[in-house]
Specification:
The protein is an alpha/beta fold and 681 residues long. The protein has 15 helices and 32 strands. The chain folds into five domains: 92 residues; 165 residues, Rossmann fold; 86 residues, Immunoglobulins (Immunoglobulin-like, Sandwich); 204 residues, Class I glutamine amidotransferase (GATase) domain (Rossmann fold, 3-Layer(aba) Sandwich), CATH 3.40.50.880; 34 residues, no CATH class.
């Protein structure tokens, strides 16, 4: 037992107050007039009778009241563990960190060992639940008093590759406290990694009445080098024109030189040395990637020379293929549009397409189904055969981009798009300002990258009338006069894009502006069906497996150990899949396309800096307030390890005050006492 404010016991001097009331103030004489004292003999009167205390029980109650009052201000406490030993059952949560960083040395094994010791230390009345938080928090057991079940769940917990989050842990602890309506005692077994802290400290808040104890399996930050990221093309068309850039990072490290290697299917293609500054980053570049045709498993690897080799490589995949053919149909007199479009496609980092240019009559005799996408560069009237072939092409999933210029016929519907072309608005610079781009939809693939459209000016713009129903139409960009610039209309399984101007340097200056190259590159990749595919993922991220129209079609996922990861039922119903670990995953989608997904651990796990002690203390203190839904004993127990007893002292004071009042009134109204007083008088 102890006292939080023992200096209040200095007020014990107040015990003199009841002594004064009962002893010194009790002897009173009433003055009586008398003629002369000459006949009285002087002598000393004994005062023993007047020094004798009366009403001893009342005196004791008053002294005890003062002592209890001082005791309440001194705030006595006992350790909450004493309450538990006295028979109170505890509600425990054992949270084990099984994130990627716990793979370092024996951290995960030590955490499980420490958790096992706490499980074995449970009393017969204690109940507990096991939680893991390497990634999304998972409940590994029910709230139970069965220690054998807890030990079994702990033994079955594997080390993971995901990132830990202390905000996610706090959320689970709050949820547990709220659902059980009681105080909980949380024991957390982790490496106390600083990178697991959330950006906002409020996300660490614990419910009132939560006792938090961290069992850290690491006591210092260790130096670590890692491959932090790799920038590589998703597809390879010319192995001599592939640029791969790797970023090498050092955490808590001194300046050092690391050897960096590029591998394809386990074979070293090139190696370079890079100097990494102390606690800094450095980049290394490889300008060729000799990958075979098809999907290739690639890797950037370093000689980390540290105690955590699990992050010394970065996996990525590439697909080598020949450029796909694309078609541009232009007017016979138009040579500018094919030139600008072809130059933009060839200048792309991934020269994924070869452009063929044809006039309308020549295109009518060609097989348009073999082209990845088709551009109708203001070609004028189209032969019916070509129009029918393009309509079928779009219905089957193809994409057509139509530019509108001087060759379009006003008052008629544009081919394929079925949009009304009202006419061509021509801007004369000496009379009015050129039109500019007022807004773009950044979520649309053509504008997904940060682009500056401020310098683009339009001198000839088609006025389009959109239908009343816009269910299948998306306006991706608008001009300064409010008219649409780029319209995407879904028809069947394909798309028709309408650009309300021409691709030349007469109707506008777009082909001469820097924004032209990324605009054509992104639009072509999306129309060609290669813009949406991903190659690199983080552990714990999701991949989409099917669309709404592909229900019931089987998909297949093969993991790094060549085992199928979906059951027969899941293969026909699952719409997404979450990558559970590092490695290469072969994904065969419902539409028949195959993807080699490279999955890497979150590199925040590579920084072994520890949570500052002051932050940890603040985190613990968020759960120190008493829980209003608990009784007085539980409210006291919530104050860390000190269960205060002031609640009970105040209750005793209230009872004592009532007893003193009753007894005092009885003495004041006692007839014998009143008679004695008269006789004395």
């Amino acid at each position: 037992m102890g006292f939080l404010a023992p200096w209040f016991f200095a007020g014990v001097a107040l015990l003199g107050l009841p002594v004064y009331v009962h002893l010194l103030r009790q002897y009173k004489q009433t003055p009586i007039p008398f003629s002369s004292l000459m006949f009285f003999e002087r002598r000393t009167q004994s005062s023993i009778k007047h020094r004798k205390l009366k009403y001893l029980l009342l005196f004791a109650l008053r002294c005890l009241f003062i002592l209890l009052l001082l005791l309440a201000f001194a705030r006595p406490y006992i350790h909450s563990s004493s309450i538990a030993r006295a028979g109170g059952a505890r509600t425990l949560v054992f949270a084990v960190d099984n994130s990627f960083s716990m793979r370092q040395d024996e951290r995960f094994a030590n955490a499980k060992k420490a958790a096992l010791e706490q499980i074995n230390a449970m009393s017969a009345n204690d109940r507990a639940q096991l939680v893991s938080f390497g990634g999304p928090a998972r409940l590994l057991s029910d709230m139970t008093t069965d220690r054998a079940a807890l030990r079994s769940a702990l033994d079955a917990l594997p080390a993971g590759d995901d990132a830990s989050s202390y905000a996610e842990l706090s959320r689970v602890l709050r949820s547990t406290s709220e659902s059980l309506k009681t105080n909980i005692e949380a024991h957390v077994f982790t490496d106390a990694q600083k990178s697991s802290l959330p950006a906002a400290f409020a996300d660490l808040r614990l419910d009132a009445g939560t006792k938090f104890e961290m069992h850290a399996v690491a006591d210092k930050a260790i130096p670590n080098w890692t491959v932090e990221s790799v920038d590589a093309p998703r597809r390879v068309f010319d192995t001599k024109k592939v640029r791969t850039v790797a970023t090498i990072a050092g955490f808590n490290t001194q300046e050092a030189t690391r050897k960096v290697s590029l591998l394809a299917n386990g074979k070293v293609l090139a190696s370079k040395d890079v100097k990494v500054p102390a606690g800094g980053r450095a980049s290394v570049e490889f300008l060729a990637l000799d990958a075979p045709y098809g999907l290739t498993r690639c890797e950037i690897r370093i000689d980390g020379a540290d105690s955590f080799p699990q992050d010394d490589q970065w996996l990525f995949s590439v697909e080598r293929t020949d450029p796909k053919p694309a078609l541009i149909v232009r007017a016979d007199s138009d040579t500018a549009s094919p030139l600008y479009v072809r130059t933009a496609l060839e200048s792309s980092a991934e020269a994924a397409f070869t452009l063929q240019s044809m006039g309308p009559l020549q295109a009518a005799a060609a097989d348009v189904s073999k082209f990845s996408f088709v551009v109708l560069a203001d070609p004028g009237p189209l032969p019916d055969k070509l129009t029918d072939a393009l309509a079928k092409y779009v219905q089957n999933g193809g994409s057509v981009l139509l530019t509108v210029g001087k060759n379009a016929a006003p008052g008629r519907h544009l081919p394929l798009a079925e949009l009304q072309f009202l006419g061509l608005h021509t801007v004369f610079p000496d009379r009015e300002s050129p039109l500019t781009v007022a807004s773009v939809d950044a979520s649309y693939p053509s504008f997904s990258s940060a682009q500056n459209w401020g310098g683009v000016e339009f001198f000839q713009v088609a006025k389009l009338q959109l239908p009343q129903s816009l269910a299948d139409i998306r306006v991706a960009a608008k001009l300064s006069d409010g008219s649409p610039l780029l319209v995407d209309r879904r028809i069947g399984s394909g798309h028709v894009l309408v650009f309300a101007s021409a691709f030349d340097n007469i109707a506008n200056n777009l082909p001469l502006e820097p924004v032209w190259l990324p605009f054509v590159d992104q639009t072509a990749h999306e129309m060609g069906g290669i813009g949406a595919a991903h190659a690199n993922y983080k552990v714990g991220s999701f991949v989409e497996l099917r669309t709404e129209k592909e229900k019931g079609v089987a998909v297949e996922i093969t993991g790094p150990d060549n085992k199928r990861l979906l059951s027969l039922a899941e293969s026909t119903k699952a719409t997404t899949f979450q990558f559970p670990s590092q490695g290469f995953f072969d994904v065969r989608r419902a539409n028949g396309r195959e993807e080699l997904a490279a999955v890497n651990a979150d590199r925040r796990e590579s920084d072994f800096s520890l949570v500052p002690q002051e932050t940890l203390e603040l985190w613990k203190n968020t759960g120190m307030a008493p829980n209003a839904s608990s009784g007085p004993a539980q409210s006291a127990a919530a104050q860390g390890d000190k269960a205060e007893l002031w609640w009970w002292v105040l209750a005793m004071l209230a009872v004592l005050a009532v007893a003193e009042s009753v007894l005092g009134n009885r003495h004041m109204t006692d007839p014998k006492q009143m008679t004695g007083a008269k006789e004395v008088a």
